[in-house]
Amino acid sequence: MNFPDLAIFERDGVARANRQITKALRKGQSLFVMVVRLNDIQKLCASYGHKMADEIMEEFFKRLVDFANDGDAIQRIGQQRFVVLLNGLDNRGYVTLAAQKIERITRELMTKYGKAPVVRAAIGIASGDTPGTDAQDLMRCAEIASLDAHLKGQPHAFYENAGPQHLIESWAMEKRLSSAIETGQMRLHFQPKLCLTSREIVGVEALMRWEDEKLGTISPDVFIQLAEETGQIVELTQFAIHHVCRQLHDWRDSMPGLNAAVNVTPSMIRGNDVIDMIKSAAGIWDVSFDALTVEVTENALLEDRVASHRILKHVQALGAQVSIDDFGTGYSSMAYLKEIPANELKIDRSFVGDMLEDEMDHKIVEHCIGIANSFGLRVVAEGIETKAVLDELSQLGCDFAQGYYICRPLPAAELLNWYEHQFKAAIAV
Ligand code: C2E
Ligand code: MG
Ligand code: MG
Hints:
By secondary structure, the protein is α/β, with parallel strands linked by helices. It has 17 helices and 14 strands. The chain has helices at 14-26, 41-48, 50-67, 92-112, 135-152, 164-171, 173-182, 220-230, 233-250, 273-285, 298-303, 305-318, 334-337, 349-352, 359-374, 387-396, 412-428, and strands at 31-38, 73-76, 81-87, 121-127, 156-158, 187-195, 201-212, 216-218, 259-263, 292-297, 321-327, 344-347, 378-381, 400-401. The strands form 2 sheets. It has an 8-stranded mixed β-barrel, surrounded by 4 helices. A hairpin with a 4-residue loop joins strand 2 (73-76) and strand 3 (81-87). Helix 3 packs antiparallel against helix 4 and helix 9 runs parallel beside helix 10. Ligand C2E binds at residues 13-15, 191, 206-208, 219-221, 224, 240, 263-265, 295, 325-326, 349, 382-385, 402-404, 409.
C-alpha cells in the first residue's frame, strides 16, 4: 500500500530533540537548550498567506542551521517553535551571545521581507547542569522560559528567572487556561492508528490543542503539566472524554468500529472521577465502552501502584481498553509488568524514530515487542516518520503503528476527509 505523500509538519521535532539531549546528557557534556518562539506568525499568515509564511519559517530554520556550530542541533517542534541544542558551551556569556545572534537572524530575515509585520523571537534557555534533569524537563523548562520572555517583551530569558510557579503567579496563565476551558477554546486533534496486518485504520488517539490569542500555540507538554499542578486537569479530562464520545457518535456511519484513545494523567488514575466520566459520556453519546481506550504512561502507574491498579481494573471491567503509553521510558520490572492491568503497550517514539540508524534503539523496540508478546498484550509503535521504519516494524511483528508518516494529528473533519479521500484511495491503488 502506498501512503499519501502528506506534507509532514513538525517532522523530526520533539522526539529527535529529546534523543539528542538524552545522548548529550548521558555523555556528561555541558549543554544548553533553547526554545525559539517566533511571535505574531498569525499576522504573517494574514498578510502573506499560509504558504508564504511557511516558506519564511523554512528559511528561518535554514539560517539557524547555518548559524549552528558542529555538535549543535536544531529542530523544528511546531509552526512557530524551534529547539536549538548548544553543546559544549559552559559559559552563560557565550549562550547570551548565541541568543543575540538568533535575534539578529530574525531581524535580518524580516528586513528581507520589507513590509512584513514585525515578527520577534522570544528565546527561552535552560541549562543541563542541574543533576537529575532529563531531556523532557529541559525542553519543558526552555518552553516555559520562552513564554516568560514573550510575556515580558524580552528577547530572551533563562529558566531560573521564570519557573512554572512564577509564571502562574505573574502572568496568570492558570486564569487564561481556565477561561480557555470555559469559553470552549480547547480543541482535540485525532491521530489514526493503523493495524499492520489488516492495513486498516482501527483507532485514533485524541490529542489536545490550545491556541491562546496572546501566547500563541502552547505545547500540551506545558499546559497538561500546568493543569495537573493546578487541578484543572479534571475539567480537561472531562472535556476530552466527552468530546471523544461525541466524535465516535458522529463517526459511527463514516468510520464504523473505530476505537478512540484518551490520555489520562497520574492524578486522574488515582481517583474514581475518570470512571464516572467514562460512564456518563458513553451513556450520553450511546458509545460502547469497548470503543474507548485509556492511555496512561508507564511512570504514572509507578507513582501509586495500588490506587492506579484499582482504577485501571475498573476501566477494564467496564469493557474499555488500557494502554501503557511511552513504554520503555519508565522503570518497570518484569515482575511488576505481569501485574499491570493493561491490554496494550505503546513503544515510546524516542526509540522508534531512529531505530534504523541506532542499533540500541532497534534492540529496545525488538525487546518491547517481545515483552508485549510474552505478556499477551498488543503492541503499538508511535512516532513513525518514514516508510522504512513502518516496514521494519511490520517485519518485527508489531501490531499497530502511529506516526506522521501515516497521518499527523488532525481536527475531526480533516481526519474524516483524509480517511475517505486519501487513505481509502491509497488502499485502492
Ligand atoms: P503522547 O500521548 O505520547 O502523544 C504522542 C505525541 O507524539 C503527540 O504529541 C503527537 O503529536 C506526537 N507524534 C505523533 N506522531 C509523531 C511522529 O511521527 N513524530 C513525532 N516527532 N511526534 C509524533 P503532542 O500532541 O504534542 O502531545 C504531547 C503529550 O501531551 C502526549 O504524549 C500526552 O502525554 C500529552 N497530551 C496530549 N493531549 C492530552 C490530553 O488530552 N490529556 C492528557 N492528559 N495528556 C495529553
Ligand atoms: Mg498517548
Ligand atoms: Mg506516547
